[in-house]
Specification:
Structural class: mainly alpha
Helix content: 55-70%
CATH class of the largest domain: Mainly Alpha
Number of domains: 2
Strand content: under 5%
Oligomer: single chain
Largest sheet: none
Distance between the termini: 23 Å
Number of helices: 10
Length: 176
């Protein structure tokens, strides 16, 4: 068995449990750790899904799910990643196209949801819409080109600076 196929059954199981495309989760794990459950990044991210210690603790016991013990445990890391990706996907209801919404969720996994929300605000404003989500919703949720990753990602450098290109490349890699 090839090393990159070693976790397919776990990825398929947990992706199905959370309604996700298992191939995208697999590409994400490849991008994060190249399938090395012992991986530790220079920033301190750990395991297959490259969980930062603070994020792992924050996500621990989220929504009544049993506690997570070890980000280096492949099954725990894969389940937590799938659960977290489903959570992120659910937070971008203003993006109507499912593939576009997935891009925003993937970008959030890489750059942080707060950064992607700020990027969306800048893009909405550039399209003549209210920057605030609440104000946009109160205006009747008018659609716009800011609801595409290609358009909104142009504003990412204003939020994350030099890291913007890393996130844009990450999304491209995961989406295939």
């Amino acid at each position: 068995m090839r090393p990159e196929d070693r976790y397919d059954s776990l990825i398929q199981f947990y992706a199905a449990r959370y309604g996700l495309d298992w191939q995208r989760i697999k590409r994400q794990i490849q991008a994060e750790s190249n399938f090395d459950p012992k991986a530790v990044s220079p920033a301190g991210a750990r395991g297959l899904a490259q969980w930062m210690p603070a994020s792992w603790r924050e996500w621990d016991d989220h929504d009544g799910i049993p506690a997570l013990d070890d980000p280096h445990n492949p099954e725990e890391a894969i389940e937590a990643m799938c659960r977290y990706m489903a959570f992120l996907y659910s937070r971008f209801g203003e993006i109507p196209d499912p593939d576009e919404r997935w891009k925003f969720a993937v970008a959030s996994y890489n750059a942080g949801r707060g950064n992607i929300n700020r990027c969306l605000s800048l893009a909405r404003e550039a399209c003549g819409q209210p920057a605030s989500y609440a104000a946009w919703e109160a205006a009747g949720r008018p659609p716009g080109q800011w609801q595409t990753w290609e358009y909104t990602s142009q504003f990412l450098h204003r939020v994350t600076g030099k890291h913007a290109q890393e996130t844009i490349a990450y999304v491209r890699r995961i989406m295939g």
